[in-house]
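Researcher: Quick one. two chains, 696 residues in total.
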Amino acid sequence: MKKAAVTLVLCGALAIVFSAAGFAETLQIGALYPISGSLALLGEESLRGAEIARLERNKAGGIAGREIVFEKADGSTVAAARSEAERLIEQKKVPIIIGSYSSSRCMAASEVAARKEIPYFELGAIANAITGRGYKTMWRTNPTAQDFSKSQVAFITDWLASQMGKQPSEMKVSIAHEDSDYGTSVAESFSTLAKESGIQVVSVEPYSANATDLSSVIFRLRKAEPDIVIAVSYAQDAILMARQAYELKLKAPLMGTGGGHSLQSFADALGAQADGVLNVDFTQYAVNTSFTPGLEEFLALYKATFQENPRSGHSLANYMGASVVFDILGKTGGSMNPEDLRKAAMSLDIPAGTTATGWGVKFDANGQNVRAVPLVTQWRDGKLVTVWPQDAAVMDPILKE
Amino acid sequence: MDLYIQVLVSGLLLGGVYALISVGLNLIFGVVRIINFAHGEMVMIAMYLTFWLHHFSKLDPYVSAIVIMPVMFIFGIVFQRIVVQPILATSATMKIFATVGVSLLLQNLALIAWKGDFRTVQTSYSMSSLEVFDIIVSIPRLVAFSAALLSIIVLYYFLKYTYVGKALRAIVEDHAVARLMGVNVEKHYILAFGMGTMFTALGGVLLMPFSSVYPTVGVTFTLLAFVVVVLGGLGSMSGTFFAGLFIGVVESIGGTFVSPALKEAIYFAIFVLVLLVRPQGLFGKGKGSEEVGLK
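Model:
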């Protein structure tokens, strides 16, 4: 009996020694997301994705034998994002930062990082300007606002116009967008691209995402009489706009641009009225999985770690992005020297359809991944399914009267 | 022409909602002059209570008001006893600091307890509306509007004719004299805070059928309610009602015919102009009345 007890204790001690000795060193990475404040929901969802990638990579041996550790920071507001970036770099001495879900927070935080020559990897914010500022240490794995608009314009010209019995040049589109970096950036890209393909943009309506009432936006949209409304919204305003559009009898269908329109809470709030709402976003979970190898493993790991289903595709996008960052660090052998990183990042050449998001990886001179493509999804019976393009789709899109 | 009337009607309905949210603050800040920056968080808590009651016991939001109003009355009393009472005799700034602190605390407690999710109550009437001569009137907003009107009438008569109402007004004007006249000042402060919180909670409950609740939902309401109360004139119940309607209509017209992005800017500009000309607010009692009890 006594022997058994001693053996048990010894085993326990050994286990502790081994788990501690599994990694002799750690590799610190700053993880900057809004995890409190008004963007907490998707900010945290994004962080969860990166966290899954970290757990997975550590299980597989970490990077060059070192354990990856996140130094978390809360960019609850734009000002907080800036000061948290300072804190991460000056006090915590992190050699690299990932983030940040919100475009305005990324713009502020990455500016701090660039000044101190700390590499900044954006895994989820889409404003065009993020990789358009000529920073040598700025990288982005996810698609840009421009890419979102490209998908929307292609969907309108390839599918929607013919469904409405019109030529693309006869299509009239209104844009209603929240007025921070995210919404403004999408609205500008869409207007430019639409013009190039002959689509008419009949009105552009900016509004504040914190608005308690959007009836005036709906009245303006009614006056403009578009065939479709491109909405660029966060969570609360997406629900409010869709509810008031129904109440005030706006005829044109809505097409979201990521963010709020992908959330389950959007479908819950609108009930049957959510059915048929279109959306362009990062890869979601009802997608052709032959296009997204690794997605099922991610889902299983997510459920095991957080005991619930992901709230949106933001975690998946950040999982994919963080994995790419780890791949790059693996290539440099854990070196954070910006020059080494640059070489390693530029050498990546992953074809589309081979990652969990279905995106490939190839960085351009600005550090933007040019193989990340947003997909068109649609709410069908309370589920968000991928409907376009065909190789990723699990259902055909429908046009709801 | 239709559009103009529709915009006006929507603006009035929106204004009714604004007035409803501000009634409670008018009692707490307008009548007894305690600056409460946690006002929006009281709305937030009432909204969450409505949501959870509906979620777990399928209680209709309008019915849940019967439960939530007394609960929030007690919450107001506790809040007054713990946070406000100890600093009652200090300057207004102290009350701002203390209540801003409570507001942040409540926001983050809500985030920890209920997460950042955007929660809504789905009822049969959430998106229902009446149509009168092609003018669309949202039913849940009409209910909120009517409740605002009713609350205002009730509080008006309460302040004017009941003993408690008269005592409250006396305390603000001169609490030493009120005490000499036999008014229990502490008790009346507690009562006013409880009632103010209760009416604020009613606002939160009636918002739920058409808005979503999340931890920081109160932030916009706090600012808005202060603007409504100050614009209408501190302590004036009809002032709060008309100021609410005024802001709602300005927002609706400005948003529709100028730009949705500018609607707040327009009503704040008007707010500043009004205060320059009439610092006591549109329905305020008289010159200088806005400073009574705050200095």
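DSSP finds twelve helices and twelve strands in chain A.
Researcher: Thanks, that's what I needed.
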